[in-house]
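Re: that backbone. C-alpha coordinates:
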Protein backbone atom coordinates (compact mmCIF):
# COMPACT_ATOMS: atom_id res chain seq x y z
CA UNK A 1 0.00 0.00 0.00
CA UNK A 2 2.75 2.46 0.95
CA UNK A 3 4.68 1.51 -2.17
CA UNK A 4 1.78 2.70 -4.35
CA UNK A 5 1.00 6.05 -2.74
CA UNK A 6 4.35 7.06 -1.23
CA UNK A 7 6.25 6.40 -4.44
CA UNK A 8 3.80 8.49 -6.46
CA UNK A 9 4.09 11.40 -4.02
CA UNK A 10 7.87 11.39 -3.64
CA UNK A 11 8.41 10.86 -7.36
CA UNK A 12 6.67 14.18 -8.01
CA UNK A 13 8.64 15.88 -5.24
CA UNK A 14 12.04 14.51 -6.29
CA UNK A 15 11.68 14.92 -10.06
CA UNK A 16 13.33 18.40 -10.13
CA UNK A 17 16.27 17.13 -8.06
CA UNK A 18 16.65 14.12 -10.36
CA UNK A 19 16.73 16.46 -13.36
CA UNK A 20 19.36 18.59 -11.60
CA UNK A 21 21.63 15.56 -11.08
CA UNK A 22 21.27 14.55 -14.72
CA UNK A 23 22.32 18.04 -15.84
CA UNK A 24 25.43 17.66 -13.67
CA UNK A 25 26.33 14.42 -15.41
CA UNK A 26 25.49 12.09 -12.51
CA UNK A 27 24.35 8.62 -13.61
CA UNK A 28 21.42 6.70 -12.08
CA UNK A 29 23.74 3.80 -11.20
CA UNK A 30 26.02 6.15 -9.28
CA UNK A 31 23.05 7.38 -7.24
CA UNK A 32 22.06 3.77 -6.52
CA UNK A 33 25.56 2.89 -5.29
CA UNK A 34 25.99 6.05 -3.20
CA UNK A 35 22.55 5.65 -1.65
CA UNK A 36 23.23 2.06 -0.64
CA UNK A 37 26.62 2.98 0.81
CA UNK A 38 24.99 5.77 2.83
CA UNK A 39 22.28 3.51 4.22
CA UNK A 40 24.87 0.89 5.17
CA UNK A 41 27.02 3.49 6.91
CA UNK A 42 24.08 4.91 8.84
CA UNK A 43 22.91 1.48 9.93
CA UNK A 44 26.22 -0.20 10.72
CA UNK A 45 27.99 2.78 12.27
CA UNK A 46 25.22 4.26 14.43
CA UNK A 47 22.78 1.46 15.25
CA UNK A 48 25.28 -0.94 16.90
CA UNK A 49 26.19 1.90 19.28
CA UNK A 50 22.56 2.60 20.15
CA UNK A 51 22.58 5.97 18.35
CA UNK A 52 19.23 5.30 16.71
CA UNK A 53 18.20 8.90 16.15
CA UNK A 54 21.29 9.89 14.16
CA UNK A 55 21.38 6.57 12.37
CA UNK A 56 17.80 7.05 11.23
CA UNK A 57 18.54 10.59 10.04
CA UNK A 58 21.46 9.38 7.92
CA UNK A 59 19.51 6.43 6.52
CA UNK A 60 16.49 8.58 5.68
CA UNK A 61 18.66 11.02 3.74
CA UNK A 62 20.11 8.25 1.60
CA UNK A 63 17.08 5.98 1.27
CA UNK A 64 15.49 8.46 -1.13
CA UNK A 65 18.12 7.42 -3.67
CA UNK A 66 15.87 4.42 -4.29
CA UNK A 67 13.33 6.82 -5.80
CA UNK A 68 15.78 9.23 -7.43
CA UNK A 69 17.74 6.71 -9.50
CA UNK A 70 14.68 5.29 -11.23
CA UNK A 71 13.33 8.79 -11.82
CA UNK A 72 16.65 9.78 -13.41
CA UNK A 73 16.67 6.72 -15.66
CA UNK A 74 13.15 7.46 -16.90
CA UNK A 75 13.94 11.11 -17.58
CA UNK A 76 17.12 10.19 -19.44
CA UNK A 77 15.43 7.35 -21.33
CA UNK A 78 18.04 4.89 -20.06
CA UNK A 79 15.82 2.51 -18.07
CA UNK A 80 17.18 -1.00 -18.53
CA UNK A 81 17.01 -4.52 -17.07
CA UNK A 82 20.49 -3.96 -15.66
CA UNK A 83 19.42 -0.86 -13.76
CA UNK A 84 16.38 -2.65 -12.35
CA UNK A 85 18.54 -5.61 -11.34
CA UNK A 86 21.16 -3.42 -9.65
CA UNK A 87 18.54 -1.40 -7.80
CA UNK A 88 16.68 -4.47 -6.55
CA UNK A 89 19.87 -6.24 -5.51
CA UNK A 90 21.23 -3.28 -3.56
CA UNK A 91 17.83 -2.78 -1.89
CA UNK A 92 18.34 -6.21 -0.31
CA UNK A 93 21.83 -5.20 0.82
CA UNK A 94 20.52 -1.99 2.42
CA UNK A 95 17.70 -3.82 4.19
CA UNK A 96 20.16 -6.37 5.52
CA UNK A 97 22.36 -3.60 6.91
CA UNK A 98 19.45 -1.94 8.74
CA UNK A 99 18.23 -5.05 10.53
CA UNK A 100 21.79 -6.25 10.93
CA UNK A 101 22.52 -3.01 12.78
CA UNK A 102 19.65 -3.68 15.15
CA UNK A 103 20.89 -7.24 15.70
CA UNK A 104 24.41 -6.00 16.48
CA UNK A 105 23.03 -3.58 19.07
CA UNK A 106 21.02 -6.24 20.86
CA UNK A 107 23.90 -8.71 20.63
CA UNK A 108 26.22 -6.15 22.22
CA UNK A 109 25.37 -3.20 24.43
CA UNK A 110 21.62 -3.76 24.08
CA UNK A 111 22.14 -7.19 25.68
CA UNK A 112 18.89 -8.83 24.63
CA UNK A 113 19.21 -12.20 22.93
CA UNK A 114 15.49 -12.42 22.13
CA UNK A 115 15.41 -9.08 20.31
CA UNK A 116 18.68 -9.97 18.59
CA UNK A 117 16.98 -13.10 17.26
CA UNK A 118 13.88 -11.10 16.26
CA UNK A 119 16.09 -8.63 14.36
CA UNK A 120 17.80 -11.48 12.52
CA UNK A 121 14.40 -12.97 11.71
CA UNK A 122 13.28 -9.60 10.30
CA UNK A 123 16.42 -9.51 8.16
CA UNK A 124 15.99 -13.06 6.84
CA UNK A 125 12.22 -12.98 6.37
CA UNK A 126 12.40 -9.69 4.49
CA UNK A 127 14.83 -11.23 2.01
CA UNK A 128 12.69 -14.36 1.59
CA UNK A 129 9.47 -12.36 1.16
CA UNK A 130 11.06 -10.50 -1.74
CA UNK A 131 12.49 -13.73 -3.16
CA UNK A 132 9.16 -15.55 -3.19
CA UNK A 133 7.57 -12.93 -5.43
CA UNK A 134 10.60 -12.68 -7.71
CA UNK A 135 10.92 -16.46 -8.01
CA UNK A 136 7.20 -16.94 -8.60
CA UNK A 137 7.26 -14.37 -11.40
CA UNK A 138 10.41 -15.98 -12.84
CA UNK A 139 8.59 -19.30 -13.31
CA UNK A 140 5.76 -17.56 -15.11
CA UNK A 141 3.22 -17.02 -12.33
CA UNK A 142 1.59 -13.62 -11.66
CA UNK A 143 1.92 -13.83 -7.83
CA UNK A 144 -1.17 -11.64 -7.60
CA UNK A 145 -0.76 -10.68 -3.96
CA UNK A 146 1.46 -8.15 -2.21
CA UNK A 147 0.73 -9.31 1.31
CA UNK A 148 0.36 -7.61 4.65
CA UNK A 149 3.77 -5.93 4.87
CA UNK A 150 5.94 -5.02 1.89
CA UNK A 151 9.40 -3.48 1.90
CA UNK A 152 8.12 0.08 2.31
CA UNK A 153 6.07 -0.84 5.37
CA UNK A 154 8.98 -2.74 6.92
CA UNK A 155 11.27 0.25 6.53
CA UNK A 156 8.78 2.87 7.69
CA UNK A 157 7.74 0.93 10.80
CA UNK A 158 11.29 0.08 11.86
CA UNK A 159 12.92 3.42 11.04
CA UNK A 160 10.20 5.60 12.56
CA UNK A 161 10.35 3.52 15.73
CA UNK A 162 14.16 3.64 15.78
CA UNK A 163 14.22 7.40 15.25
CA UNK A 164 11.71 8.09 18.02
CA UNK A 165 13.40 5.58 20.33
CA UNK A 166 16.63 7.45 19.72
CA UNK A 167 15.09 10.52 21.34
CA UNK A 168 15.58 8.72 24.64
CA UNK A 169 19.21 9.80 24.44
CA UNK A 170 17.99 13.41 24.64
CA UNK A 171 15.94 12.78 27.76
CA UNK A 172 12.57 11.91 26.22
CA UNK A 173 11.06 9.29 28.55
CA UNK A 174 9.30 6.06 27.66
CA UNK A 175 10.36 5.84 24.01
CA UNK A 176 12.77 2.92 24.38
CA UNK A 177 9.95 0.39 24.07
CA UNK A 178 9.01 1.52 20.56
CA UNK A 179 11.82 -0.25 18.71
CA UNK A 180 11.18 -3.69 20.26
CA UNK A 181 7.46 -3.32 19.51
CA UNK A 182 8.22 -2.33 15.91
CA UNK A 183 10.57 -5.27 15.42
CA UNK A 184 7.93 -7.71 16.64
CA UNK A 185 5.36 -6.11 14.31
CA UNK A 186 7.72 -6.39 11.34
CA UNK A 187 8.63 -9.98 12.23
CA UNK A 188 5.02 -11.13 12.55
CA UNK A 189 3.90 -9.14 9.52
CA UNK A 190 6.72 -10.55 7.40
CA UNK A 191 5.83 -14.10 8.45
CA UNK A 192 2.19 -13.50 7.49
CA UNK A 193 3.22 -11.95 4.17
CA UNK A 194 5.50 -14.88 3.42
CA UNK A 195 2.64 -17.27 4.09
CA UNK A 196 0.31 -15.25 1.86
CA UNK A 197 2.74 -15.33 -1.04
CA UNK A 198 3.57 -19.02 -0.69
CA UNK A 199 -0.12 -19.93 -0.61
CA UNK A 200 -0.76 -17.71 -3.64
CA UNK A 201 2.08 -19.27 -5.63
CA UNK A 202 0.84 -22.75 -4.70
CA UNK A 203 -2.69 -21.89 -5.85
CA UNK A 204 -1.54 -20.24 -9.07
CA UNK A 205 0.76 -23.17 -9.82
CA UNK A 206 -2.10 -25.64 -9.38
CA UNK A 207 -4.37 -23.51 -11.57
CA UNK A 208 -1.71 -23.27 -14.28
CA UNK A 209 -1.16 -27.04 -14.20
CA UNK A 210 -4.91 -27.69 -14.42
CA UNK A 211 -5.26 -25.27 -17.33
CA UNK A 212 -2.35 -26.91 -19.16
CA UNK A 213 -3.84 -30.36 -18.56
CA UNK A 214 -7.24 -29.22 -19.82
CA UNK A 215 -5.67 -27.67 -22.91
CA UNK A 216 -3.74 -30.87 -23.56
CA UNK A 217 -6.86 -32.99 -23.17
CA UNK A 218 -8.77 -30.71 -25.52
CA UNK A 219 -6.03 -30.89 -28.13
CA UNK A 220 -5.92 -34.68 -27.81
CA UNK A 221 -9.68 -34.98 -28.22
CA UNK A 222 -9.58 -32.74 -31.28
CA UNK A 223 -6.84 -34.82 -32.87
CA UNK A 224 -8.72 -38.06 -32.16
CA UNK A 225 -11.90 -36.62 -33.69
CA UNK A 226 -10.07 -35.55 -36.83
CA UNK A 227 -8.51 -39.00 -37.19
CA UNK A 228 -11.90 -40.71 -36.80
CA UNK A 229 -13.46 -38.41 -39.38
CA UNK A 230 -10.67 -39.12 -41.86
CA UNK A 231 -11.09 -42.87 -41.36
CA UNK A 232 -14.84 -42.62 -41.96
CA UNK A 233 -14.35 -40.65 -45.15
CA UNK A 234 -11.79 -43.17 -46.38
CA UNK A 235 -14.25 -46.01 -45.74
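Recovered sequence:
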Amino acid sequence: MLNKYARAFFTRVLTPFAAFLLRRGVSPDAVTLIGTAGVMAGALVFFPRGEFFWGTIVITLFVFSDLIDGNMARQAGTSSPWGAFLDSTLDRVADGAIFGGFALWYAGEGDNNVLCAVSIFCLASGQVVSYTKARGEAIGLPVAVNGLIERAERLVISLVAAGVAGLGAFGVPGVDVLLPIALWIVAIGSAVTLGQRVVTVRRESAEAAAAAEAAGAGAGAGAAGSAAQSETEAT
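Residues 168 and 175 are 6 Å apart (CA to CA). The radius of gyration is 24 Å.
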